[in-house]
């Protein structure tokens, strides 16, 4: 029998959260524009996610820069999905392996110990999960573990408490059936919008760590549908022009950098 490989699957979709531009409200509001008076801010402790959001932003920029040098096409990823999945993975690691995972994300474990990192992600994921009248955001983690693996209950409890991760036993020798089970679960969680997320995996697979994210909101400045026109200037690459509907709008917008 050949070597057994551990495959890590990360399903990511685009939600580029401006976690570094403006802090979230300490009261859990998902809107990033409102700020509290200075007199009140000084009396309230900073949320735990403030310890991780700058690192997540820097990780996203470093990753984007590297991908841009290696990939010719479009780049689409969610910084929160990737970083939280790797941080979740580090829960099951020890010693040097755990350190390498967290340091690869950019954390200085002397300044921010692993326990603070996990509490920071717990705070961030909880804040993102709070209901909002302006948008709908669902983000979650699934762990599919081969029946041969016997994870410690302490790990499963921590994964659920800190990251909301749910663990399932899987039979990876039946690749088609297990793949269908995973895809069905993701499709259900994303209201049928993400279909066939997991292509294929080897019979030697022992674990699948999967993240899903669903985002729905209305544009702050809606586009006039009558201004939408088809044009051929959009290209997947230099040789494949596409004729697709392009939204148009001519307005003055104020953006905070």
Automatic annotation (TrEMBL):
Cleavable signal peptide: 1-21
Q: Does the keyword Signal apply?
A: yes
Gene source species: Mus musculus
- Spell out the Pfam families in the cross-references: Serpin
Q: Which GO terms describe its molecular function?
A: serine-type endopeptidase inhibitor activity
Start and end of every Serpin domain? Answer: 61-257
Q: Which family does it belong to?
A: Belongs to the serpin family.
Supply one GO CC term from the record: extracellular space
Supply the gene name: Serpina11
Question: What is the designated name of this protein?
Answer: Serine (or cysteine) peptidase inhibitor, clade A (alpha-1 antiproteinase, antitrypsin), member 11
Q: Which UniProt keywords apply?
A: Signal
Output the InterPro entries linked to this UniProt entry: Serpin_dom, Serpin_fam, Serpin_sf, Serpin_sf_1, Serpin_sf_2
Upper lineage: Eukaryota, Metazoa, Chordata, Craniata, Vertebrata
């Amino acid at each position: 029998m050949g070597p057994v490989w551990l495959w890590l699957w990360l399903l990511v979709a685009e939600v580029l959260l401006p976690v570094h531009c403006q802090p979230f409200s300490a009261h859990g509001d998902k809107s990033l524009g409102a700020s509290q008076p200075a007199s009140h801010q000084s009396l309230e402790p900073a949320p735990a996610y403030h310890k991780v959001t700058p690192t997540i932003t820097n990780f996203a920029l470093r990753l984007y820069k590297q991908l841009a040098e290696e990939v010719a096409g479009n780049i689409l990823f969610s910084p929160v999905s990737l970083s939280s999945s790797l941080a979740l993975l580090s829960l099951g690691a020890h010693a040097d392996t755990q350190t390498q995972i967290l340091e690869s994300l950019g954390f200085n474990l002397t300044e921010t110990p692993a326990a603070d990192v996990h509490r920071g992600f717990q705070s961030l994921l909880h804040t993102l999960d709070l209901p909002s009248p302006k948008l709908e955001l669902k983000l979650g983690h699934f762990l599919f573990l081969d029946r041969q693996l016997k994870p410690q209950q302490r790990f499963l409890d921590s994964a659920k408490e800190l990251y909301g991760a749910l663990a399932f036993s899987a039979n990876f020798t039946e690749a088609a059936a297990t793949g269908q089970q995973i895809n069905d679960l993701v499709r259900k969680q994303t209201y049928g919008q993400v279909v066939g997320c997991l292509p294929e995996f080897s019979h030697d697979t022992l674990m699948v760590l999967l993240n899903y994210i669903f985002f729905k909101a209305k544009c702050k400045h809606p586009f006039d549908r009558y201004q939408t026109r088809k044009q051929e200037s959009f290209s997947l690459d230099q040789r494949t022009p596409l004729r697709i509907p392009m939204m148009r709008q001519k307005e003055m917008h104020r953006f905070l950098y």
